[in-house]
Amino acid sequence: MKTVMEEWILVESIQPGIESIVLNRPGRRNALSIELLDQLSTVLKRIESDRGNRVVILRAAGPVFSAGLDLREAADFALVERSAAAVERALRQLRETSLIVIAAVQGGAFAGGAGLMAACDLVIAAEDAKFGFPEARRGLLPALICDVLRHKVREGDLRELFLLGEPIDAARAQQVGLVQRIVAAAQLRAAAVEAAAAVIAGGPQTIRQTKRLINETFAVPKTNDAGDSIKKHLAARHSAEAHEGLAAFIEKRDPRWEAT
Description:
Layout: E1 3-5, E2 9-15, E3 18-23, H1 34-49, E4 55-60, H2 71-74, H3 80-96, E5 100-105, E6 108-110, H4 112-118, E7 122-126, E8 130-132, H5 143-149, H6 155-164, E9 168-169, H7 170-176, E10 181-183, H8 188-200, H9 204-217, H10 226-237, H11 240-251
Parallel strand pairs: 3-4, 4-5, 5-7, 6-8, 7-10
Antiparallel strand pairs: 1-2, 2-3, 8-9
């Protein structure tokens, strides 16, 4: 097995046609910093450039898949636009790459981490994994993630996830369409490899065309494109509620919302 290390990304060659990308920032619960997302983008492009590669398994080091956006960066107004652009690019790239991307999720995936997971073609989750979108409790708007989830989650379930902001278990995540398969935690990697092997049993060009067909079938309307979503996302990041919500998170206290 060949291993290539970036600072926050680990790449493993599983077998011909199958590569594994590992989010490698366990000390920060794989928080999505600008640098991590930039490295993810670079690695994904490199893997895709080799036409022999057909499937990528997206995994994470440590007990948690991803806690979401790096909120310390999100609280820095000087980094807001770079951070938003990095998130948008990662979500779009995972969805649009010709590679089939399988997320193997342990521990939990929250906010942007859950969005990253949902941008993948298939999600296999450990039976004890949790999922959630607590953006509203941070004064943030899940505009970029909404573009991804609208393809997978029914409107009523999306309202529950976003408005309540409460975590759900793997069984509920499968019920609403966030997760396709649930396995024992110890079998997670093996299950992902098994699914990847099933993909490469299909014709290479046919599989690529099938993914393109599905993407075109569920394309985001031009009236709600990525540029519009970024504008909404950035407007919320600059708001007073975002400032208070992020400060409260960093200071480990409840936010003090102003009446409007």
